[in-house]
Design brief:
The complex is a heterodimer of chains A (155) and B (182). Chain A has 155 residues and is an all-alpha fold. Chain A is built from six helices and no strands. Chain B is built from eight helices and no strands. Classes of the chains: A mainly alpha (155), B mainly alpha (182).
Chain lengths: 155, 182
């Protein structure tokens, strides 16, 4: 699995940065424009999946190993739960928007809406890492099952 | 309130049978009955969306579990189809179709919001006070991450659990263990 032709590799290496930046933008501006953590996380994962399709699985596994992706996934879930528990600690209610009370930002600004951007970042991290993990584990599974099947000599 | 105790008793009995029985298929059916009781409970507690989710997950999970348990000894019906059974199923499908037509006649026209115009509806509150209360310009974000953050936590948990299941089932070590003899 050495990847595709050089045309695809070149284009993918240019486009991956734009896709990644677009995912970060969607996540960070989730409380102002359409989008949010789920959509942005899917876009982040799709940039890595583009790399996986064009350069092969080993290249992506070197950049973002499976244990690291799993840790990122857990970190996203942990951050989201921590935001909820901080609401319980500071605001008195589970999941209350405590930052909005103490630090009211101007509406339609990037830093506003209290904990909503933080939740978006946590969810984006979680969704991106977990979708990447799904594709990676499925591809590992398919790759490893191939030698067991009797081959006809055709590639 | 008596209906709750009846349902609770029914669910407890179903759960005990599901644990204690030796037959896998009857255990699966008892779990299905338990989930059906839970969804009825949600319906009586006026939480229809959770009831719908519960019944969909329960039915899907039930079908998958039954398929997994009895995949070894699937029984196929051999011989001609009975005329009576065909007539009965066609009549039942026709009755359900007529009921569906009656239901669709009561639906509002496409694009009209019925719940948003009701007085005291939750969506009205979201639209009018969403920006002031949460400070988020995107009303969808303010709903899913502030007003309804519990739902988002549940969805994130579902995603997390499913990823754990996928990575555990598809990992390399399990296949090595399978290949090695005991």
């Amino acid at each position: 699995m050495n990847g595709m032709t050089i045309i695809v590799k070149t284009i993918a290496s240019w486009v991956k940065v734009l896709i990644f930046l677009f995912g970060i933008y969607i996540i960070l501006f989730g409380h102002l424009t359409p989008g949010g953590g789920f959509a942005g996380g899917v876009i982040l994962a799709s940039s890595y999946i583009l790399l996986m399709l064009s350069f092969g699985r080993e290249f992506v596994e070197e950049n973002l190993p499976l244990p690291l992706a799993s840790k990122l996934d857990c970190l996203g879930a942990f951050l989201f739960a921590m935001i909820a528990i901080l609401g319980l600690a500071f605001g008195g209610i589970f999941f209350v928007n405590f930052l909005q009370k103490y630090l009211p930002g101007q509406p339609l600004e990037l830093i506003s809406a209290g904990t909503i951007p933080l939740s978006n970042i946590a969810i984006g991290l979680k969704v991106g890492a977990s979708l990447f993990l799904v594709i990676l584990t499925l591809s590992i599974c398919c790759k490893d099952f191939k030698p067991n099947t009797p081959s006809d000599g055709k590639e | 309130m008596a209906i709750f105790y009846v349902l609770l008793l029914f669910m407890i009995i179903a759960a005990i049978i599901a644990i204690e029985t030796k037959n896998l298929l009857s255990s699966v059916i008892c779990i299905g009955a338990l989930g059906f009781g839970i969804s009825l409970m949600f319906l009586f507690l006026r939480a229809p969306d959770i009831a719908i989710t519960q019944i969909v997950v329960e039915v899907l999970g039930l079908i998958i579990l039954i398929r997994a348990t009895i995949s070894r000894d699937l029984t196929f019906i051999t011989g001609d189809k009975e005329f009576f059974g065909t007539v009965v199923s066609v009549v039942i499908i026709f009755v359900i179709f007529l009921a569906g037509v009656k239901v669709f006649e009561t639906l509002p026209d496409f694009g009209t919001a019925i719940f948003a115009e009701t007085r005291g509806a939750a969506s009205q509150t979201y639209i009018s006070e969403g920006l002031a209360k949460t400070g988020a310009a995107n009303i969808v974000a303010s709903v899913i991450l502030d007003f309804r953050a519990y739902d988002t936590l549940g969805e994130a948990t579902v995603l997390f659990t499913s990823i754990i299941g996928a990575t555990v089932i598809l990992r390399k070590k399990a296949k090595k263990l399978l290949e090695e003899p005991d």
